[in-house]
Design brief:
By secondary structure, the chain is mainly beta. The protein has 3 domains: about 100 residues, predicted glycosyltransferase like domains (Thrombin, subunit H, Beta Barrel); about 50 residues, no CATH class; about 100 residues, predicted glycosyltransferase like domains (Thrombin, subunit H), CATH 2.40.10. It has 3 helices and 20 strands. The strands form 3 sheets. Strands 3-4-5-8-7-6 form a 6-stranded antiparallel beta barrel. It has a 6-stranded antiparallel barrel with strand order 15-16-17-20-19-18. The chain has a two-stranded parallel ribbon with strand order 1-9. A hairpin with a 2-residue loop joins strand 4 and strand 5. The protein is globular and about 55 Å long.
């Protein structure tokens, strides 16, 4: 799934300038990050954002952070500084440089100088996640930062009302969504699972279109970086090419991702289909 292209005049170009954009924007904004690294040593590093949204950012650093720590981020264009919480780490990208997902503590601040248009509530992804402390299972909407981290590393950090503290949350294997899974045959292992990709129980609407122009608005069961599984009342064939739009991207111009059906399995609510993305 692609993201909006960064162009001149977008966030960070002019201090105080406001642009209306979708929930996630690719934007190399120059920043200064101040905090403590994983060893507890204070640091200050000039860096850039990879992408930003209303809830936080994905940033690239040479210093290693500790999940759930608080850091200060200064937007060097707007000169606004705010506190952020470290949600999680992504894979290393160049040498000792790593990307991190950070969440802003003050949701009313406008550090990026952008007027965001967040996706509608019904279009936000909802994951079935489990607290690592008390094993509480919830179905919770995710911000795009949490979604990215959970999909990349299979774990996020957030507050647990039962534990009364911040704990690690992972995709739950305890619970299922009854409207999707009740009475369903167990889907076969798809290629993503065989290749060891993390699969996340993620419930969100998507649109699928085949080469004949037949369209259906369906619902995902789980996703991975290689593909997804969805439930539909329409009939598609194994091997058939489909074009997928995930509403969570919420771009002004929807972007279709091409995939191919690798398997299908019947269920009381329709038919499961496993899609592998076509690279």
């Amino acid at each position: 799934m692609t993201e909006p292209e960064f162009k001149s005049g977008m966030p960070g170009a002019i201090p105080g300038e406001k642009k209306r954009r979708s929930d996630r924007v690719l934007a190399p904004i120059p920043i200064r990050v101040i905090g403590n690294d994983m060893t507890g040593v204070a640091f200050s590093e000039d860096a850039v954002t990879v992408s930003v949204n209303q809830h936080g950012a994905r940033i690239s650093l040479t210093h290693s952070l500790l999940v759930d720590d608080t850091i200060l981020v200064l937007n060097k264009k707007t000169r606004i500084e705010e506190e952020f919480r470290v949600v999680g780490a992504f894979e290393q990208v160049i040498g000792d440089r790593r990307e991190w997902g950070v969440e802003i503590l003050d949701p009313n601040c406008n550090i990026w100088g952008i007027e965001f248009t967040p996706p509608a509530e019904e279009l936000r992804p909802k994951a079935i996640i489990e607290c690592g402390g008390c094993r509480r299972v919830v179905q919770s909407p995710l911000s795009s930062i949490e979604y990215d981290v959970l999909l990349a590393v299979g774990m996020i950090s957030r507050h647990c009302d039962r534990c009364k503290e911040t704990t690690r949350w992972m995709p739950s294997q305890q619970a299922v969504m009854p409207e999707i899974l009740e009475g369903a045959a167990k889907p076969p292992r798809d290629e993503a699972e065989k290749r060891g990709a993390k699969r996340i129980n993620l419930v969100m609407r998507l649109r699928v279109r085949n080469a004949w122009g037949e369209v259906d608005v369906a619902q995902t069961r789980d996703v991975s970086k290689f593909g997804l599984c969805f439930l539909s009342s329409k009939r598609f064939e194994v091997g058939e090419e489909l074009f997928v739009i995930l509403p969570f991207a919420a771009n002004s111009v929807p972007v279709e991702t091409e995939g191919r059906i690798r398997w299908s399995a019947p269920t009381t609510g329709g038919q499961y289909y496993g899609i592998e993305y076509v690279k």
